[in-house]
Write a structure and sequence with these properties.
Layout: H1 2-49, H2 59-105, H3 109-122, H4 126-159, H5 173-207, H6 211-224, H7 229-268, H8 272-285, H9 289-325, H10 329-342, H11 347-386, H12 390-403, H13 407-447, H14 451-464, H15 469-508, H16 512-528
Length: 529
């Protein structure tokens, strides 16, 4: 029975020693964490400010880099001040925590609880709260174990007397130190594993662009190890850079969405080309691959629709041109208006509607007026021909021929002109024959000495042809000349007859010399003829 009691006492001593050892390890590890935490901002401030090769930098880049460094340094200064303030608070919390540990170790569990509550009121560190909770649990356990040990020691002392300083027991000087170092190493490994896990979780969140959650993870890692390079890199550079990138992407996405929505409105209004232009601008604005794929799929679908529309547009344009070439201008205009309803900027349709068709209408109206005028000329020629005015008819029909573009009217005018020209030729021949006949009659009458009758015929010739040279020569020269010659000859004959009769009278009277003179005179007069 005494041996059983002694064994229980030894077990209780070992448990008490283990509890004390755990408290020692927690204090050592926690102190190391606090020391690392206070050193973190200065170390990483140096790492994040860094240096650059100024010789390779332009003035613009140097200015930009200086601005970035100033922003980084300001952020680091703020972080350092926050860290210093937190460090001061944590130092107070650590002092209260350690005081609680000491009180717990001395068996003053109520004082320890008050000290740890003070630490909880001050600290913001989740780890510190975990340590305090663990110490509260251990203190409660130690309190219970101490009560059991006290009862066991009391019973043992009652039976065998007090026992102290057993070598190798948890209260011995060498065993506790060796066991604390091993536990500290195990706890350090556990902390490193915890940091690695937190970093891995932070990296996963970072890859998912859950930046705030990722930053929380990395800052938790830094609270465990203020010098952790990976967490420091993410908090100091990668996360701010990614946050700025996400802000820029968000702005781009907002702009891309606005442009894409504008394209959708254009699509709903029927402006497919405008919609495509807007959507291409949107796809060039967005930086999200999934959004690009979605927009590209919509553009591909629109391209198929545009191809169908363009095929229809080409057909309508061809129909419009064909109708235009047959002067079916109203139907042609309808086709081109249908084209513009599908494509409001179609150049061919606009050109026909705004230029070609109006010009053709004006031309056709002018042509119609010309044809009406040509028809009027043609009818006028018919009337003149019927009245016997062949030259007038020919002139009218010639005007109709030069005015019209109607082949049928041209043929009719040409036929009428030919008929009139034939009639004119015949009349000219008849006229010329009549003039020639009258002239011949006048010449014949002149030749027989019927000068007055001849002059009548020549006057008839001049009445028909006032420029007839022969008739005018007879009337102006030959007939007057012949009449004058006949008058002279008649006078010569009378003078010769008188001289002859006088010579006969003188001869009858026996006056031969005077008779001879009178006959010589008569002979001279006759010789004048």
């Amino acid at each position: 029975m005494p041996h059983r009691t002694q064994g229980k006492a030894v077990i209780m001593d070992i448990k008490t020693g283990v509890a004390e050892m755990k408290l020692f390890i927690y204090r050592a590890v926690l102190s190391a964490c606090f020391i690392s935490l206070t050193a973190f901002p200065a170390v990483h401030a140096v790492e994040r400010v860094g240096t650059h090769d100024d010789s390779a930098m332009t003035l613009e880049n140097l200015s930009r880099l200086a601005g970035e460094k100033l922003q980084n340094v300001e952020a680091l200064i703020r972080e350092r001040k926050i860290a210093e303030r937190n460090a001061a608070n944590e130092a107070q919390a650590r002092e209260a925590y350690e005081r609680g540990v000491q009180l717990s170790s001395s068996g003053d569990f109520d004082g320890a609880k008050k000290a740890w509550k003070e630490a909880l009121d001050i600290t913001q560190s989740p780890e510190m709260r975990e340590y305090v909770a663990e110490q509260n649990r251990l203190a409660k356990l130690s309190e219970e174990q101490a009560a059991v040990a006290q009862r066991a020691a009391y019973r043992e002392e009652v039976v065998s007397g007090p026992r102290t300083g057993r070598p190798g027991s948890p209260s011995g000087p060498g065993w506790t130190g060796e066991f604390s170092l091993s536990a500290a190493n195990e706890l350090k490994a556990a902390v490193e594993a915890r940091i690695n896990l937190i970093n891995a979780e932070g990296e996963a969140l970072f890859r998912e662009d859950k930046i705030d959650d990722a930053e929380g993870k990395f800052r938790a890692a830094l609270r465990l190890d203020a010098k952790n390079l990976k967490a420091g890199e993410y908090v100091g550079s990668l996360i701010p850079a990614r946050r700025e990138t996400l802000r820029r992407i968000a702005a781009s996405e907002q702009k891309a969405k606005a442009v894409f929505d504008r394209g959708s409105q254009l699509y709903d209004s029927g402006d497919l080309i405008g919609a495509r232009t807007a959507w291409v601008e949107a796809i060039n604005t967005t930086e999200i691959p999934a959004t690009k794929l979605g927009m590209k799929a919509r553009i591909d679908q629109l391209d198929a629709e545009i191809a169908v529309v363009f095929t229809k547009i080409d057909g309508l344009n061809r129909e419009g041109v064909a109708l235009f070439e047959t002067d079916s201008l109203a139907e042609s205009a309808e086709k081109f208006r249908a084209v513009l309803a599908l494509d409001g900027t179609n150049i061919k349709a606009m050109e026909y509607l705004e230029v070609s068709i109006p010009n053709r209408k004006a031309f056709l109206l002018s042509k119609k007026a010309g044809e009406e005028k040509a028809g009027s000329f043609f009818e006028q020629g018919n009337q003149l021909y019927a009245s016997g005015d062949i030259p007038g008819a020919l002139a009218a029909w010639q005007n109709a021929l030069t005015t019209t573009e109607n082949e049928a009217l041209k043929a009719k005018a040409t036929t009428q002109i030919a008929m009139a020209q034939e009639r004119k030729r015949q009349e000219l021949e008849s006229f010329q024959a009549r003039v020639a006949g009258l002239y011949a009659e006048g010449v014949a009458l002149f030749d027989v000495g019927r000068f007055d009758d001849s002059a009548t015929k020549f006057n008839e010739v001049l009445a028909l042809n006032s420029s007839h040279w022969g008739a005018r020569q007879y009337l102006n020269n030959k007939i007057p000349g012949m009449k004058a010659e006949l008058t002279r000859k008649s006078k010569v004959e009378r003078d010769a007859q008188e001289a002859m009769e006088q010579g006969n009278k003188l001869y009858a009277a026996g006056n031969f010399e005077e008779a001879q003179d009178a006959w010589k005179k008569a002979l001279e007069i006759t010789q004048q003829r």
